[in-house]
Amino acid sequence: MSAVAPSAAELPPPVLAAPSAARRPALRRFMRHRLAMFGLVAIIVLVVACALGPYLSPYGPLTIDLRHRFQPPFEGRHWLGSDQLGRDLLVRLLLAGRISLTVGFAAMGLSTAVGVVIGLVAGFYGGWVGTALMRFVDAVLSFPAIFLLLTLAALVSPGVLTITLIVALTAWMEVARVVEGQVRSLRERDFAIAAEAIGVSDAHLMLRELLPNIMAPIVVAATLNVARAILLESYASYLGYGIQPPTPSWGNMLNNAQEYLTSAPWLAIFPGAVITLAVTGFNFLGDGLRDALDPRLDVHR
Amino acid sequence: MTRYVLHRLGQSLVLLVLVSMIGFGLLHLTPGGPLSQFALTPGMSAATLARLSHQMGLDRPLPIQYAEWAGHLLRGDWGRSYRDQQPVLAIIVSHLWATLELMVSSTLLAIIFGTWVGVLGAIRRYSLADYLATIGAMVGLSIPTFWFGLVMIYLFSVWLGWLPSGDMYTNGDASLLDYARHLVLPCLVLTLVTIATWSRYMRASMLDVISQDYIRTARAKGLRPRAVLIHHALRNALLPMITVAGLQLPTLLGGALVTETVFTWPGMGRLFLDSISYRDYPVVMGLLMFSALLVLLGNLVADLLYVVADPRIRLA
Amino acid sequence: MTDVLMVEDLAVRFRGESGVVDAVEGVSFRLREGETLAIVGESSSGKSVTALALMRLLGGPPNCVVRGRATFMRQDGEALALLSLPETRMASVRGRDVGMIFQEPMTSLNPVHRIGAQIVEGLLAHERLSPRAAEKRAVALLDHVGIPEPALRARAFPHQLSGGMRQRAMIAMALACRPRVLIADEPTTALDVTIQAQILELIRALQHETGMSVIFITHNLGVVAEVADRVLVMYAGQVVEDAPVDVLLHRPQMPYSAGLIGSVPRLDDVRRRGGRLAAIPGNVPDPNTRPAGCTFHPRCAHARPDPCETARPALEYVSDGHTVRCARWREITV
Asked: How far apart are CA A208 and CA A199, in angstroms?
């Protein structure tokens, strides 16, 4: 090899590519890592607390105690105060968490599955089928998610199962897009062509060859989808079209809170803070996973 | 360029057809379909319903019904409200302005401050401020809009008593100041919905631009840092943000719906919820279609604007 | 002839993800008025970094530390310490006293601004001019660098011009304020061969006309032979030979310089049967893991374990205006 090729364009050293962009990778990775760890810890704490907490409390979620209504938090018998019926806010929050987190995870599972199937098929077959499917995805994305969610919620009788289905129906499109893009680029690569050449079935090719190679972006999208599902459920429930009282959910606990904003602001503060914590947790975790698993996907850079 | 515009118009038309099909599908999913209004009327017999169904053409093949429905839609006949028999489109348009005021004011805020935060994050990359902005944006994306609204009301209306907690005007007061005071909180809340995304994309775009060769050229010419930043870096970094603004529209509309609910702002979102609680399907459907159309139109405008703003595309 | 630029012990250290990189170490040279100094070397030899460091166009600490001294003599006799000047003063040096052109005329011009506007901007930054007068000057400059229909081209966007035209526009931009020094960082590398010759000719003509000095950075010794008065050969961040162009091309002392010369294809070599291109074996060492001793010894045919692999050689005096960094230059014939 000629060491000096007179016609070869000289590449600048890589450090020069972004001279003004300071690089402090250690701190950066540390921070990223810390945020993702924070997210993970927050999620675990929430899940454990919601699962076990209610057993440890002397109060039932529906225990009405009219003598102790509107107890402020951090004083008296109720740690986080009590509501308009004298129910313990903490216990209700934890039980609501069971519902909200379940809906979040279930809707994530469902929306991810739907998104993966549609994305796989669209990316794998391409052509007319792929275009049609992806245009359909675009069309659904044209509807603001909350409008779609509430329209569907208004059509069916609300409940945990239906709200999960509805949330999933409004959250699968991003996954489909991500998967389609990945599959389309992977499909051109050698191993997919080789597998095709030795005559394996389409299903085998999709599930055994392509799917394992795109797990990273799917995991990231799925994690972010939990956050999204929890948010969507809370919107629907807050507006009265999601989980119906007396079953508590983080969203529907805020349903009446606005009325009592003057007299009992903690009824509004705590449920929202818990939603924020859970959603932030999943978003941080998803962002951290994105950095760790596939830097190319990092829109924040 | 003509080809691109035509291509983009064609794409939007295809999407429009798909969107209308989804809307039509949902309409027919309603219990009782378009007949639900009558189905709920007491004393309505099955025979009468069947007759009505025939009169309204609901027993004909779906594609024909779809074509007719879409035709009405295109001619501006979006049906009539169950509540007051007003034409749906007129009702929507009468609520449109309140929503637009909210959306425009909050988008301006988000763009101004989001750009500033994003640029700062890019040029002081990995500084403390940049980290705080990153974390802030992530938390901002995670806060439920309605709850943020409640907290704002608690802080500024209940606790401090500075601003009204809802509505667009105080009764009997039609001054601009009164309107502005009512606008502040909902506008701030809706700003939160977009500013996080905007600042993140702005930061990424700016980072991309400041490592470009032409920024080095601009500095080599002896331009002051501010001139390099504004004239060369920002100008280029804002280009892709046109597309981002278009893509943000559905989120913005959804955020407006929630914000209007919290602040009893008389816009489309408020109308949507009222209509849902009345089971006023024609209006619900109309709003769903209208918002999707708005989004399609917004994206089309964004893409065409991009063509105008980027000289490389204009004459390529 | 007077010195326009004196560089002493210039060193550039980057702190990157892969650790600390000394991109440039102990580079010293003088640039005389009207002279063309070629800085030659392979990729990552530090020649571009040297130029960017002089223009203060590298990032700041802690990620990039520039040490050493660089003194620029202005026309009015004022001496400027380039590396310690406040940033605002430095900005007024760039473009006015020292102009710079780059390798990629496509990416080096801002795609969203018109050619004329990009020249005007530089003029207005340094001179008291009305925008209208600046526009006139810009058109005149475009005309001067041989762009046909300059008034029309001034209204064009960069992507509407050919590569050669873009580089001409870059030159017009860099020379707009008649700088004393032009730094040309591989200005012809990205261009077709015929265009290359035209651009070289243009730079030479402009230099002749204005009397400016030129630092010409290139890896192409053919170009060096055409334009340079003096040559600085760089390898692995250091100057390994500094000599007048005739001396370097005909009596190089450093084996690396000789290798570079040998790898240039020449017509008479090709004609001669069996004439082969002598390539330097191996690659430039990774800046993170430079060999001990002479950094060139792993690729050098004349290397001996002692002293080449043990001690880093110093620059040694060969004759007036000729120094070399080779411990064995007296013993070997390259």
From this structure: 14
Provide the percentage of residues in chain B whose pLDDT is more than 90.
33
Q: What number is the average pLDDT over the span C114-119?
A: 94
pTM score of the predicted model:
0.83
C63 close to B (CB below 8 A)? no
What distance in Å separates the CA atoms of residue B273 and residue A276, rounded to the nearest whole number?
24
Domain map (residue ranges) of chain A: 27-58+85-297
Helix axes A215-238, A89-125, angle to 10 degrees: 130
| Rounded CA separation C99/C184 (Å) | 8
Q: How far is CA A262 from the centre of its chain?
A: 33
A155 contacts B262? CB cut-off 8 A: no
Place of tokens 């004298």: A86
Taking an 8 Å cut-off on Cβ atoms, the answer to whether B158 and A284 are in contact is no
The Cα–Cα gap between A264 and A271 comes to 13
Q: Does B228 touch chain A (CB under 8 A)?
A: no
Q: What is the pLDDT of residue A81?
A: 73
Q: Helix, strand or coil for residue C45?
A: coil
- H/E segment holding residue B88: helix B88-123
Pick the residue from chain C with its C-alpha nearest to A21: C59
Reported as a single tens digit per residue, the pLDDT across B31-70 is 666 666 666 666 667 777 777 777 777 777 888 888 888 8
Contact (CB<8Å) B144/A279: yes
Residue pair C102/C185 in contact by the 8 Å Cβ criterion: yes
Q: A250, A271 in Cβ contact below 8 A? A: yes
pLDDT in tens, A153-177: 887 877 889 999 999 999 999 999 9
> Residues of C with CB below 8 A from A19's CB?
52, 57-59, 64
> Domain spanning A27-58+85-297 has what CATH number?
1.10.3720.10
Q: Which residues in C56-65 are b (16+ Cβ under 10 Å) and which e?
A: bbbbeeebbe
Give residue A23's pLDDT: 44
Most B CBs within 10 A among C110, C127, C141, hence the mutation to make, goes to C110
- Chain-chain contact of A155 with B22 (C-beta, under 8 angstroms): no
Average pLDDT, chain C: 87
Number of H helices, E strands in chain B: 15, 0
- Asked if this assembly's ipTM is beyond 0.90, the reply is no
Residues 6+ apart with CB under 8 A from A147: B253, B254, B257, B272, B287, B288, B291
Contact status of B80 with chain C (Cβ, < 8 Å): no
With contacts defined as CB-CB under 8 Å, which chain A residues touch B131?
A: 31
pLDDT exceeds 90 at position B29: no
Considering only CB atoms, B213 lies closest to which of C102, C112, C157, namely C102
The predicted pLDDT at position B76 comes to: 83
State the pLDDT confidence band at A14, using cuts at 50, 70 and 90: very low
Taking the CA of residue B111 and the nearest CA in chain C, the distance in Å comes to: 21
Distance from CA of A14 to the nearest CA of C (A): 9
C268 and chain A in contact, CB less than 8 A: no
Whether residues A148 and B150 touch (CB distance < 8 A) is answered with no
- Can you tell me the distance from the alpha carbon of B269 to that of B96, in angstroms, rounded to the nearest whole number? 9
Q: Which is more confident, A204 or A39?
A: A39
**In this predicted structure, which of B42-56, B224-238, C218-232 has the lowest mean pLDDT?**
B42-56
Question: Chain A contacts of C64, Cβ < 8 Å?
Answer: 15, 19
Q: By C-alpha distance, which of B4, B48, B45, B43 is closest to B303?
A: B4
Residue C112 has its nearest CB partner, among B216, B235, B315, at B235
Subunit partners of chain A (3 or more CB pairs within 8 A): B, C
DSSP one-letter code for B291: H
Which residue among B223, B236, B315 sits closest to C160, beta carbon to beta carbon? B315
3-state SS assignment for residue C217: strand
Side chain identity, residue C77? G
